[in-house]
Structure formats: structure tokens, C-alpha cells
């Protein structure tokens, strides 16, 4: 204790301390009552104020003579405080004999409101009969503003949270709208349904890597005249909206050109010219792989002539369970060289045979990370061999 | 994760780009970028060395075709060197062996 400072030493228990206390402290209980840091008042059981201390009078800006014997406790309250006092405070007090820390609002002479915390206790006579009510009043202005500040902070935090939640919902809604637009656009690039080809069954399976990556794949199947049908399948370079533009150009170019040519290689040559005219010399070459086929039913089977433009081999799943690649080398990517050559190959489909076409999205699909996990042509060929001969709808690779 | 690394060195015959890693959808743009920065004189030859290439998809082929276009516009020539067997097979399948001078990887 020897290291402590002077004021602390005065608070010790030495004989000097008592003298200091005596000099400092109230020597009269009356002075303590009048000047205490809280308000005191005593009322009769009907609320008439019998005694009030100077502290409370000064808070309210009232004179003692105007209050004592003239006003009731409830007269010191605001209208709201008065109602609460009549309906809750007074009945509870009569019932319990005491109440502690009730928040009420007092009204000063100048009209200002004074938030207070009120505690009251009933003093009983020797026979147990209630005599008067003793009340202490604490100024709760600071406490009220502290609570209001807390409340304001909480409301701000809640508003910030609400705004963040609204922003998140909006972003989600926009994402959903974008997905919807892309899906609609995607459908515009592909036929809704494949037409019925007499004696044959056709099915298509289309899957994009992500709803936000428009696929660059396109296909179609349509009749050339009463006896012949044409089909094509292609894959444009790149993905996204630019690829989609190219996809729709390719699809309509092939379809228009296909109607006027007996040779399946001619539509690919037309598309080649279209792509070179549109995209050559702008530093961003666009090309596609495509195959174009013509179906000619007759003699118990279907003659298939297939032209290749840089496209992976087609597969023929024979009715006897064998599986073979239908391909001819030398078919150039479409849109690269003005003098491109497109090779044609021919086969006949017998009853029960299946012709399977795919884009390199299938053989380039990765089943893990790294080149060695590519699905690959070998993977597709062995899958197809295991499944030949199936109906067309069952031949969608995983 | 797959990566792509493209480095450039100069020889008397022209620039050589060493390509290591994957020429796929996520990485082909950096090859295009590298090629755009090259300035070639007429008669020079750009060699793209693919010895370190372990994957090439259609976007990789696009990047190589863009390189070819850039080179031809400058009056120069392009050679793909040390082409891995599987990439060589794809190039041949899509007819690009008629478009590029391809040198297979030493086996």
C-alpha cells in the first residue's frame, strides 16, 4: 500500500479519516433528503403529494407551494404516463405493496418531458392499514438516449441486412432471367423435334457444359423431296453468343444449300464459302466441323451418303451387334481454306442398323482432369460396341 | 489444374514459340495473345513447337489457325514442330495437314 497516491491514503481507516468523513458528509438527514441525486416524494393513498424533495422540484421546474397538498402524483406525469399509472402502476402497487424501476414519463413546468424510473413502496400503519406511498424518481434521460442509440444501431443493422438480402435476390433473379434467355436462344438454333422419317426412327440428345455457355453444336433432319431426306450435324469453334451467331448462320446455310444439291459435299462447300466471306481476314477465324448426309430409302434398306468437313467419324451399329466407324479422311474443316475438299463416304443401313453421329464435345469431354481422362473416340467406340444394337433413344453416351 | 505456358525465342529464321500445357477453352487465348504481339518480316518463318503440348481441343485449333492468319498476312510462313501423335491424328482427320506444315514429334 505504501506506493499508493495521496488521495487513496486519505480513504484509509486512520483516525484522520473519520474526521474527514464527518466534515464532508451530510450531517443532517434532511439535507440528504432534499439534495439527493434522485427525486423523493410521499403521497397519500389517493395520490395527493404530501412531501417532495428539492431535487425533483428543480427537475420539474415547480415550486413546493404549488405542489404539496395541491397536486397528485399523476399530475406530474405526461398524458401517456398518467394513463399507464392509472391502469397499471397504481393497481399493481396497491396489490403488491411495492414496485421497482418502472419507466414513466414526467412533464416539467416548461412542457419538457422527463423520462424517469420510478420505485414506490406503501408505508403501513401499526394496524397494517396503508398510510402513504413513498416514491423515488431516477432521471433516466441518459439511459433513454443510450437505449435509443442502441435501437437506432439495431435498426440500421437490420436495414443493411435487408438491403443485402434484396440485392442478393435481385442478382439471383437476373441470373435466372439470363439462363432463360440463353435457353430460348439455344432452342432457336436447334429443331424443336425431329420429323418422322418413314421406316426409320430418329433421336437427338443435346447437352451443354453449362447453361451460361451456349453450345456451338447444331443439327437438323429434313425432307428433300418425297423420297429423300437430309441431315447434318456440326460444331462451330468457340462457345458463347459469338459461337451462337455462327451456329445459326451455319444451320440455315446448310439447310438452304441442301435443298438444291444431289451431292452431300456441295452444302459443305457452300457453308465453307459463307464462313470465309464472313470471317476471313478479321484476325479471328471462325470455322466449324460438319457432316452432311442424304438418306435414300429403297430396296429394304436405306442408302446413306455422308460428306465430312473435319468432323469426327460416324458410327454404324449393325443389327448383328458389330460396330464400325464410318469415315473417310481428307474432309477439311469448314471455313479454313477457299479450295477446301470435302470427302464423301457411302453405306447402306439394313433393318435394325443404327447410325450414330456425335460432335467432338463428346470425345473431348473429360471424365477428370488431365488429357488421359478424356472420354475419347476409343471410349465411345467401346461403349457403342457394348450397346449395339440398340434403339436410337438408348444410345446417348453418359 | 491444367495450365498453358508460351515462351518466345528468336532464331535467324524467325521466332519460335514453345507451347507447354493445354491448348483448351480456358487457355488458348494466351497463345492468341502471344502471337498478336509478334512482328514478322516477309520471308520469315514462325515455328510453333508443340513438344510440351499435352492437350488440344477445338479452341486450340482456332488459336493455331489465328496464328496462321497473322503470319500469312505478314507474308511469312508457319510450321508446327514436334506435333504429338494424338494432335497429329486430329489435325489429319480434320484436313489441317493440308493447311499447316506439320513435323511430327521425334518418337
- What is the arithmetic mean of pLDDT of chain A? 83
The outline of chain B comes out as globular
Number of domains of chain B: 1
Amino- and carboxy-terminal Cα gap of chain B: 27 Å
Main beta sheet of chain B: 5 strands, mixed
Number of helices of chain B: 3
Strand order of the largest sheet of chain A: 2-1-5-4-3
Just give the CATH class of the largest domain in chain A.
Alpha Beta
Mind explaining what this structure looks like?
The complex is a heterodimer of chains A (about 400) and B (about 110). With about 400 residues, chain A is an alpha+beta fold. Chain A has three domains: about 130 residues, Beta-Lactamase (2-Layer Sandwich), CATH 3.30.450; about 40 residues; about 200 residues, Phosphatase 2c, domain 1, CATH 3.60.40.10. Chain A has a five-stranded antiparallel beta sheet, sandwiched between helices. In chain A, a hairpin with a 5-residue loop joins strand 6 and strand 7. In chain A, helix 7 runs parallel beside helix 8. Chain A starts with 5 loop residues before the first helix and ends in an 11-residue tail after the last helix. In chain A, about 30% of the residues are buried. By secondary structure, chain B is α/β, with parallel strands linked by helices. Chain B has one domain: STAS domain (Transcription Regulator spoIIAA, 2-Layer Sandwich). Helices cover about 30% and strands about 40% of the residues of chain B. Chain B contains three helices and five strands; from the N terminus they run E-E-H-E-H-E-H-E. Chain B has a five-stranded mixed beta sheet with strand order 1-2-3-4-5. In chain B, strand 2, helix 1 and strand 3 form a beta-alpha-beta unit. The chains are: A alpha+beta (about 400), B alpha/beta (about 110).
Amino acid at each position: 500500500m505504501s506506493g499508493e497516491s495521496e488521495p487513496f491514503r486519505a480513504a484509509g481507516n486512520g483516525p484522520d479519516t473519520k474526521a474527514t468523513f464527518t466534515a464532508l458528509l451530510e450531517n443532517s438527514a434532511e439535507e440528504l433528503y432534499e439534495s439527493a441525486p434522485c427525486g423523493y416524494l410521499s403521497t397519500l393513498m389517493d395520490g395527493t403529494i404530501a412531501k417532495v424533495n428539492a431535487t425533483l422540484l428543480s427537475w420539474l421546474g415547480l415550486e413546493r407551494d404549488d405542489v404539496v397538498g395541491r397536486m397528485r402524483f399523476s399530475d406530474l406525469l405526461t398524458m401517456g404516463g398518467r394513463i399507464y399509472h392509472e391502469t397499471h402502476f397504481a393497481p399493481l402497487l396497491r396489490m403488491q405493496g411495492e414496485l421497482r424501476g418502472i419507466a414513466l414519463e414526467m412533464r416539467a413546468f416548461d412542457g419538457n418531458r422527463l423520462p424517469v424510473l420510478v420505485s414506490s413502496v406503501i408505508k403501513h400503519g401499526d394496524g397494517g392499514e396503508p398510510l402513504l406511498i413513498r416514491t423515488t424518481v431516477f432521471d433516466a434521460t441518459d439511459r433513454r438516449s443510450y437505449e435509443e442509440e442502441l435501437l437506432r444501431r439495431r435498426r440500421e443493422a437490420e436495414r443493411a441486412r435487408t438491403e443485402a438480402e434484396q440485392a442478393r435476390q435481385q442478382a439471383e433473379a437476373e441470373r435466372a432471367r439470363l439462363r432463360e434467355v440463353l435457353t430460348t436462344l439455344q432452342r432457336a438454333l436447334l429443331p424443336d423435334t425431329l420429323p418422322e422419317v418413314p421406316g426409320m426412327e430418329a433421336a437427338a440428345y443435346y447437352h451443354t457444359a453449362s447453361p451460361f455457355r451456349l453450345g456451338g453444336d447444331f443439327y437438323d433432319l429434313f425432307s428433300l423431296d418425297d423420297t429423300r431426306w437430309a441431315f447434318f450435324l456440326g460444331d462451330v469453334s468457340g462457345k458463347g453468343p459469338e459461337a451462337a451467331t455462327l451456329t445459326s448462320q451455319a444451320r440455315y446455310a446448310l439447310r438452304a444449300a441442301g435443298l438444291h444439291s444431289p451431292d452431300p459435299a456441295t452444302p459443305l462447300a457452300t457453308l465453307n464459302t459463307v464462313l470465309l466471306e464472313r470471317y476471313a481476314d478479321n484476325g479471328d477465324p471462325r470455322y466449324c466441323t460438319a457432316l452432311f448426309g442424304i438418306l435414300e430409302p429403297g430396296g429394304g434398306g436405306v442408302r446413306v451418303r455422308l460428306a465430312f468437313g473435319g468432323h469426327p467419324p460416324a458410327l454404324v451399329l449393325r443389327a448383328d451387334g458389330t460396330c464400325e466407324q464410318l469415315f473417310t479422311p481428307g474432309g477439311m474443316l469448314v471455313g479454313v481454306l477457299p479450295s477446301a475438299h470435302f470427302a464423301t463416304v457411302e453405306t447402306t443401313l439394313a433393318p435394325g442398323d443404327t447410325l450414330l453421329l456425335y460432335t467432338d464435345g463428346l470425345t473431348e469431354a473429360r471424365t477428370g482432369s488431365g488429357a488421359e481422362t478424356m472420354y475419347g473416340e476409343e471410349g465411345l467406340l467401346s461403349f457403342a460396341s457394348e450397346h449395339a444394337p440398340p434403339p436410337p433413344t438408348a444410345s446417348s453416351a453418359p | 489444374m491444367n495450365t498453358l505456358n508460351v515462351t518466345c525465342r528468336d532464331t535467324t529464321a524467325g521466332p519460335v514459340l514453345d507451347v507447354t500445357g493445354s491448348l483448351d477453352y480456358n487457355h488458348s487465348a494466351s497463345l492468341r495473345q502471344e502471337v498478336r504481339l509478334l512482328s514478322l518480316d516477309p520471308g520469315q518463318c514462325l515455328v510453333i513447337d508443340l513438344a510440351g503440348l499435352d492437350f488440344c481441343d477445338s479452341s486450340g485449333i482456332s488459336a493455331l489457325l489465328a496464328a496462321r492468319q497473322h503470319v500469312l498476312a505478314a507474308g511469312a510462313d508457319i510450321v508446327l514442330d514436334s506435333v504429338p501423335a494424338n494432335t497429329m491424328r486430329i489435325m489429319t482427320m480434320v484436313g489441317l495437314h493440308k493447311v499447316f506444315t506439320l513435323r511430327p514429334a521425334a518418337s
